[in-house]
Structures
1.
Amino acid sequence: MSRSIERRRFLATAAAAATAGSLRPETLGGSESSPGVPVPPTLPIQTPQQDPPPPAPLGNGEPPALHFQAYPGGTGALMEKLWRDTDGDPFERTAIDIERWSGPVPTSEEDLAFLPVHRLAALIRAREVTSSELTGIYLDRLKRLDPVLLCAVTILEGRAREEARQADLELASGDWRGPLHGIPYGIKDLFAVAGTRTTWGAADFSSQFTRFDSEVAVRLREAGAVLMAKLATGEFARGDRWYRGRTLNPWNLDEGSSGSSAGPGSATVAACVAFAIGTETQGSIVSPARRCGLTALRPTFGRVSRYGGMVLSWSMDKTGPMCRSALDCALVFNAIHGADEKDPGSLTAPFRFDHSPDLSTMRIGYTEDAPESFVEALRALGADPRPMPEIPSGRSNALGVESAAAFDFHVAPGGEPPPIPEDADEAERRRRGRFRGSRNIPALDFVQSQRRRLILMKEMAEVMRDFDMFVSGSGQVGLTNQTGHPAAVVPYDYGVRNPDSESPTEMPLTTTLIGDLFADDRILSVAHAFQQGTDWHLRRPETG
């Protein structure tokens, strides 16, 4: 056989084998091997490639595989540190005592409604007032004031009265669950509560019902608290405007209550609830608390489960109490904090609130814009406040990218956002465009931004190395939401806010205590020490 014929036969055989998807050596050179030469192993027969299964559908809540940790050294290093600092008991839970009631009981329903939680708890425990009576007072106030304030999305009257009745039965039998037992409260309408609407402040979701409970609602139910209402949030957790209108500040009905925890701020300061649960991603607890003159805690990132809450940013969302005193914030926080398997970003760390802290042992700083009178008051209580060194600054694109991912199911259900109507006005274009811009940020830019964010966190850790906390006039909202540091809003005086504005307001003036990571207990203890000798936090607006 000529060499050319053999070559053609070889090529034909190879082509046939390739077409069949099986290229085996024995088909190319005969069925027998040459003497002393082993036959190469047969290659596996290739099968036609199948299409991968479609990706799992995503809504708003499914968390990503990557999780943010506020401690720059990571979760493992944090656990080791907590283990050492607590002598091997980093998960202990410390009960917070409340002073028993003594003296006359307020006879005015309004006076009762404006009492802080720890005083209401003392009344209930002493059987001076029932949960049902207290719930009725708050329901009447909420139904009367909500048409003006627009602070509630859904008033849960039937549910609240039944929970209050159950609390009274338990209390009558001597079963006292703790200081929140029988206390009526409201929750921001970002949190799921089975059988109720959870609207996220948006008309598109005004009929959204859920069949499960958010973890924070579960923990408050277990503590015996009485859920009265789902309270207003700005649309998709921005500002104080939602689909029914604008939630107003009870101190000044010419202005909004700020947001996005607008309803929790407004309802609490107007004594429509005893306390409320808000959320913050970038100012949404601190801002309405300051606007409305409340005491509030934005906890260290990860200390309270966000399961069942609307997601805006997995690495920045936080849940916290909005109250009428620092002690109230401590009582509520003590009931809701701790790790939850349903929230991969959550963890447990010690919380040791101190009724009588020694401020001389606290390392307290202050910024140039800190209120001088508040700093001096801390000095009079034994503290030695020192000026803060330069505080770092920096921004990441985490909020934009993560919120775009969280709302992709709504903005682009078909894969690409539909065009904004040409006749849409500027407000409508802003609303529709909110979650669109960050869709085009490259993945590389997002990762690089998070790398720089860790650098910022380390710079902040270096600044806080010699401080437990510092007093800030501005609140450092942008920075501390990037780094995960806790903040407590504290009323410190009473006077005209923004005297040059068109609508000046006489109300409690507030400042912010920024704590080191996981120093939530310390900033609340210091705020409580200040409030024991002042009554700014007890001032109340005229609610009619």
2.
Amino acid sequence: MNYSIVDFLSLLGAVCLFLYGMKIMSEGLQKVAGDRLRNILGAMTKNRVMGVITGVVITALIQSSSASTTMVVSFVNAGLMTLQQSMAVIFGANVGTTFTTWIISAFSFEVSISDYAIALLALAVPMIFMKRSAWKYTGEFLIGFCLLFMGLDLISKFVPNLKDNPEMLQFLSEYTSMGFGSVVLFSLIGAILTMVIQSSAATFAITLVMCSQGWISFELGCAIVLGGNIGTTITPVLASLSGNLAAKRTAMGHVLFNTLGSLVALIVWYPFINLVAEVTEFFGGKDPLAVGATSATVALGLAIFPTVFNTINLFIMIWFTKLYVKIVCTVMPSHHKDSEEEFTLKYIGRGLLSASELNIAQAQKEIVVYGERVQRMLGMAQRLLHLDEKSEEYTKVYNRLEKYEEIADRMEIEIGNYLNHVAEGKLSPEGKMKIAGMLRMISEIESIADGCYNVGKTLNRKNQNHVKFNDSTMKEIDTIYKMVDDAMVNMMEILREMETPEENKIIASYNREREINNYRNKLRDANIYNINNREYDYQEGIFYMDIVGEAEKLGDYVLNVVEGVKHQFRADSDD
């Protein structure tokens, strides 16, 4: 045998170059689309038809069904999309991914695009050094495009030549002449191969080369492609492992759709493969099943096979979307009852983050949940002010406030770690700005939690010193905390519309913070006057100003959160 270990390593390197090119091309397109991709997905999934179209278009654009379905899992996990909406998008993604196979098929044999790749790199590389983000990301896409086809060309070069290595042909022939058993076997090979390399496009490219070199027949090549259809579900499954139940159900729906479709295709395999051959002959003029079929004919047939399969599968399965949802919900029932008293992250986890730019939405949703939890702490602090310190209710509320403060600390750490993990991925300048803004937000929200807990601790010290506030003092404290509560409500409204904050609400935040400061100053001056005129004693005045001062700090923290939102999106407004 003339095939050496160096040749084998070169073949592995060629496959890696192909995969890296696919990754760079996909990430470049995702960064060009950025937020627009999120907005499109959110707006175009209101019904099944639009959801399917969205899945087709998005997957065709980013050249990866794994990336688009992982994105869908992330969106369901973040509460941006329902399970039923996600099913339609996934159905469409299976059709959209065939666009990649057409590109590979079209350029693989008729045109040696790798011959022009170096020339294209001469245009693409300078683009990544340009200041405009759009040009830079377009350059990344073109570089990925060049590397993809250079890798494909090298795969063809380093795949062993069976004429020079007949031993390999003899080895393969043992498994290619088992009739339908060979079809099933090579389907399993396709599934395993795709699970390992996590790219159905790479599996298709390898299959194309194997068929062109005469390793396997066109029929077995189609079997590998069919198996790759099942194997490609592994990426969203892995992405959903640390997600919530809805994300796991979405990934399960994807597995169910692809697996059932593939099993049906195997049941009617021979009529189906003849249909693909007839369609190929209609468009290409030659039968890919015929002995001595050209490489171009086989390439066309292999591109038509997943297109016909996924299109038929889509038109049948789209009518059973609700049934799919019911089946998935039955297979994966909900056993967990959400409790405010337990530490749980609702939208984010530590799963695969293949599209960092798009995982920002999950963090945004989690920050809203974080803010809502801390907002409840403010209500607890206000309630403690009016409870008898000797009552059971006071102890219960204080303990609850203390537990919430511990949860707030842990949430800050978990969300911060998640944001740092996202920041390690490929992010646009706008994405980096958002990460910085959100890190500031969670830090300030945690400070609000600390401030609310400090109110409780101050009340405990006051009670231990047997200090009582008169009605006038309580009225003033209630007034300033009502002002803080109004500021907090406004802050939460801004957090819920983080992508498009209203300017009048941001201005209102500044006005409320100024009003709190002015009222604090007024109470501080009045406190000195009241102590001097013996309206109450000095110790009561100290505790009174501690509680008022904590309210003023809370107002500052609330404004800092709003400024995090404001500056987070400043880059968008400057473009």
3.
Amino acid sequence: MAKMSLPTLPPMKHVKNGKHCYLVTFKNKWQEGKCVAVKGMTKTVAKIEGGETTGKVVWTEEFLQEHPELGKLDTYRKAKAPAKPGGRRSYFLVFEPHDEQVSLRQSFKAKTLTAGPTWVLDHIIKDSPLATALKDVFSPYNRHRKIVSLAYYMYLNSTTSMECYAAFAKNNRLPWQAPLRPSQCSQLFKSISKEDIDKFLKKLNQEVCKIEQVNVGSVNTCYALDATSFSTYAKNLTQEAGGHNKDEDHLRQINLLMLVNQKTGVPIYYRCVDGDVPDIASVLYTLRDIVRSGVNRRAIAVGDRGYFSIANIHRFYQGKASFVMNFKTSGSLARNFITKHKAELEGMDSYDPVLRQHVYSITTSWSYPVNFKTNCKQRRPHERADIQVHIFFDANIKHIKTENLTIALSDLRLRLKGGSKLSYEEQKLAERLLIIERDAEGNCVSIKANKAKIAEYLFTAGYQILLSDCIADPREAYRAYQMHNSMAEAFAVWKQDLRGRFHTSTCSTTAGKIFTLFIATSIALLFKTHASYCKAMALPFDGDKAIMEELKGIKAKEWQDRLYYTEITGIKRLLLEALDIPIPDVAVFTKAEQQDLQSDQELADDEGFIASTVDEMVAKFNNN
């Protein structure tokens, strides 16, 4: 039998780091009569299993490429006894050929990880502005990988509680594979400072602006402005950390306000607002703050009715910020627009076959106060600018709303005549829209519809008004607002997943945890946007969570410091192909590549009320 030739390797020494022990190459030089190590010339080439100074050696991929003969050998580091008592131990390497039978037996005991969902998410965020900004700001101590791993956990498990994260990390392939205990997660959240978050947002917007500048002049860039709220069980929050919950359940509430690129799904800004601050009151500070974060000033903010007010329109003009805003139809100004153009809107000539509804647009003048302090004794100086008013009328919506109201009022009549007890909402609806005559004993004698009140309630049914300072095309304005709605749906699903509860205990961890939740929400929006563009390729599932559930069938085995993917066939392969995600190779990466051998330091107005009550009553009617 031919004698095995031993590899020729450079000198090495071990370096202990917490629970781990690594082998590093080094160079020495003579300096002032002493042999000293040359700074910057050490290089990590291996890790010793078990964290001791002796044991099986696992080489890095880079070192194996330099010494391919090691790939056919098992290497063990052993120690010699000191030559004399109290002397230093010396170490040597032992090389043995692979025992394929042993390897085969070990492979059946290899740890299996759920890998499909995180494999897809890795490719969704890869090279995105989000990933670039995270790496740029949080790379020390691998915080960027830990933050993404925690964000995956939040998104895939619909929770912000870290209690089960360690178990999740043991069973799922993650950017940072080492399980983190709740205390370690808290330390990581505490390490995320306000300065870190500011740097991240600025870097994020630098990267986003690079992409958006490519399309300058060809298409408008629209940012969805929306917010979602979370209640928290924390008892140690300061007044600034959260307001009072509007639902009066004695929990503190935090509102998470975000700006999201509607086309790419990339969130480019967020901030926390007290829970008792209405959306309408948050616009002024937001407009000031986005300047500091470097947000694209040419982008158009698209907001829902919750952000509309005359004062906020003034603020957009004062800040020279463009907007598309959903105008509340219950206001007197909106009703004046509808009254003036009702004949044109409900006529056949205004019908748009693309939008499948009636459309009428006008350009009018908007007067707003000058945005500077003045010594004028009377009225502040005003300026004027053009504003685009786009009015939409959908006859089908008006018909459905009229039919639902008819059913609800008919049911109310029957219940009143039968003496049934009404709920508070039903009683208020009856008082508003019915004329009820009673006898001396309180029995209903006559019940008639209040035609004037009903006509007033249905006056704006089917109408929608969008205001914009810059978009003159009603189709473009309508599309921009519809895309905003898709973002709002994502927020609603995310809030529903969390059941409106945000688990945090103290102020020191709250800011970092909210930041990680922002990253989780960003990942969810990026995936939702990516999947929406792939629907034409016949995705077998509509919801993103259904897709992720199917992808859990893709497994990877952790064996000999590598991950080996199992066969990917059938619907799982079709899903990856439809999402334009590459099929993983047999051996994808080593843990050393994933975790960098660095320090492991853990650091209701009346109309809205009536509408909701009517919907509930129609649902009851249909069920019966």
